[in-house]
Design goal:
This protein is an all-alpha fold. The protein contains 24 helices and no strands.
């Protein structure tokens, strides 16, 4: 696997710049199918628990640990993943991971024991964290600013597709067949990934200027060679002004205000997003609807959630560059807060004949989540983190993401026992409301601004709403 493969890739020399960028980011984003399948796979657990053909039993306690294994693995693996990105590069590490990911799904599907199922799930969770850490920064560094909003949401669209596929397969097939089929997509994705160029930012940081120029020409097109060379000079200038040190040295750069502020904002958004209940609702969807006492089949309700998430995520991506990140994220978090609050009221009061209300409330929550709360934080992860701390910052954010998943995954069943489903939704509503306040008050608009310009946004104070809200004006005037 050599860098020369990049220049004989499916991006032929006559493709336009947009087509080349689309080809590259579609392949990069397609790796996030693994995340969607991992998040949706717990929908198979009820059938696994009732499968008499297996030689092992899955208890309610096993369900909690299998669901939470993603976060537990993330807590252990985040800093090593950052070191691997630093050493191999974004694209190469992504490619190296794809075939082992297919193997983990086969290991789980063919598992003769509960121990083997746990091992496969944990190894799959390692791939989950690798893709969560590298995909969005890589897409941001490959894309031009004017395409970063729409195309940057592709990763979350693919996650939504993966979850919907998992929910549909759980409805139609046995848990073993669902798990084995989940391995299939990653074999063709592996071969397609060989044609994706490495991040030009990573190549410049590694001192490989010629390869960085060739990577930019590959993704921009030979007809834009001069433009690619100018972009390379801008990247070199940005990195020279704010050089990205080795992972061990990046920790010291966090203390600088222009680096600490965006990192603090990103961690606050991610923590509040997870405490808002999305992981609990998506991972425990079947159990959630059973406890809510809905008339419809629980697995059918779960499929409806997958459809709602996919629809709203596509809508978000189509509006992101025109409307701006800040406004859409504010609307999405408000929708999540209001819908979970309404659902909690009807469940707590136990109003006769209103069993359909919690279902509609959760679907509205999913629409709000897909419309902004789900995709935009990952877009911001690639945009807001400055070059000097981009790798370590992404590791910290995904580590906190994993921590919240562990907390929510392990505590949600207990929380339902203690305060009920209605009380749980009320807690989720409070955190979504707080997320809306944080976004409205502190998030600057990043649409249509280059990564080079975004390096400066937290060096100045924004005293007016216009500075933060306009999606069409560069952040540096």
């Amino acid at each position: 696997m050599t860098d020369g493969i990049v220049h004989t890739s499916w991006c032929c020399c006559y493709m336009g710049s947009l087509a080349r960028q689309v080809c590259s980011v579609v392949v990069v984003a397609s790796t996030m199918l693994h995340i969607g399948l991992m998040l949706g796979w717990p929908a198979t657990l009820p059938s696994l628990q009732t499968d008499n053909s297996t030689q092992f039993n899955v208890t309610e306690n096993d369900v909690k640990w299998l669901v939470s294994s993603i976060g537990i693995t993330g807590l252990i693996s985040n800093l090593p993943i950052g070191a691997l990105i630093d050493f191999f590069g974004y694209r190469h590490l992504m490619t190296f991971t794809l075939l082992p990911i297919a193997a983990t799904w086969l290991m789980q599907g063919l598992s003769p024991s509960l121990t083997m199922l746990y091992v496969g799930r944990i190894l799959g969770s390692l791939g989950f964290m690798i893709f969560s850490t590298l995909v969005n920064p890589l897409m941001a560094e490959l894309l031009e600013p004017k395409y970063r909003g729409f195309l940057g949401c592709l990763s979350e669209i693919v996650v939504s597709i993966g979850m919907l596929l998992a929910y549909l397969m759980a409805e139609l097939f046995t848990w073993r067949l669902v798990t084995i089929l989940s391995a299939v997509p990653f074999i063709p994705i592996f071969f397609l990934s060989l044609g994706v160029p490495e991040s030009p930012y990573w190549l410049v940081r590694a001192g490989r200027m010629k390869e960085a120029e060739e990577a930019l020409i590959t993704v921009r097109g030979p007809l834009r060679r001069l433009s690619a060379q100018e972009e390379l000079l801008q990247i070199q200038k940005s990195i020279k002004e704010q050089p990205q040190a080795r992972l061990s040295q990046q920790v010291w750069h966090i203390s600088k205000p222009q680096n600490f502020r965006p990192l603090l904002l990103m961690t606050a958004i991610i923590v509040l997003r997870e405490l808002g209940g999305q992981f609990a609702i998506f991972s425990y969807a079947v159990y959630f609807f059973r406890n809510a006492g809905v008339q419809m089949k629980a697995s059918t309700c779960t499929v409806l959630l997958g459809v709602a998430r996919l629809f709203s995520t596509v809508a978000c991506s189509s509006l992101l560059d025109r409307v701006g990140r800040r406004f859409i994220l504010t609307v999405g978090s408000s929708c999540c807060a209001v819908s979970t609050a309404i659902g909690s009221i009807f469940l707590l009061w136990d109003i006769p004949g209103s069993s359909w209300v919690p279902v509609m409330a959760v679907i509205c929550f999913v629409l709000g989540y897909g419309f902004g709360v789900g995709p935009i934080p990952w877009v911001l992860l690639g945009e807001l983190l400055p070059t000097p701390i981009r790798v370590v910052g992404a590791c910290i954010c995904t580590c906190l993401y994993a921590t919240m998943e562990v907390i929510v995954g392990l505590c949600f069943p207990q929380m339902m026992d203690e305060v009920g489903l209605g009380g749980s939704l009320l807690i989720f509503a409070a955190f979504n409301l707080l997320l809306m306040v944080v976004v409205r008050r502190f998030l600057p608009e990043t649409a249509n601004s280059s990564l080079h310009l975004l390096e400066y946004v937290f060096k100045k104070n924004y005293s007016t709403d216009e500075d933060r809200m306009s999606p069409h004006e560069p952040l540096l005037h």
